[in-house]
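From the shared-data thread, chain only:
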Amino acid sequence: MRFCIYLLLLPALVSGCARVHAHPPIAPLAGQLRPAAPAALYHTVEKGQTFYRIAKQYGVDAKELMRVNHVEDPSTLEVGQRLLIPGLVPSLLLYPAAQPLPEMNRGEIRRRVGPKQDFSVWKTITLHHSATRQGSAKLFDRDHTRRHMGGLFYHFVLGNGTYTDDGEVEVGWRWKRQIKANRPYDIQICLVGDFNKQQVSEAQFASLVTLIELLMDQYHISPNAIRKHEDIKGKHTECPGRNFPFYRLLSELKRHSDLENRHA
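Structure, as tokens:
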């Protein structure tokens, strides 16, 4: 009997991003906040970026992105070029500022991240959900070890109040040893939850913003280098889920980046 119960509970403890077959974009659910015209959001092109990747980052059509910027040949895209993002208003007007964490919590996240490692080079951050309603770094490490993934895949895991506190930042062994997962220079962050069915908690969101701000400051990572797992070419997945507040997150990170640039 105990063995049967274990088998029933096992799927809830297995981590990993939900994999789905490729399909057209899913329309936003009724009542979701949608950016509205007139368009007034700009993106500054960085090295290695293409119209396709920039369009996917903002959830717009690449051809429409080219059209509104009067570009006929995508190969003419240049580093430093400013592109008007069609159909979006400035994210700073869409979302209120996130409430800052208490100072001791911010300090604890900073302590767990640790000081900048001069020998490390990190350029991008990829966001995941666990696609499970509960979990922790310890449980995911056990599962990833069983799946011959070399232990916990993620550098950081943010709890949702099931096995760890809501918003708690757990540091994986890969970050402690400054080791990549499977893409060089790419930091992997996983939030516990199934965000096709659930919402990111405010505690998780606040911790995520603080964590990424610290990583951006330490390793000079641009907000434009923050991406969802599904944004990686060839990945047929909805990770980190349809309900993940990605544009709200970008709003916070761009606000932080603008403040840092003004103070520089």
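Residues 202-219 form the longest helix (18 residues).
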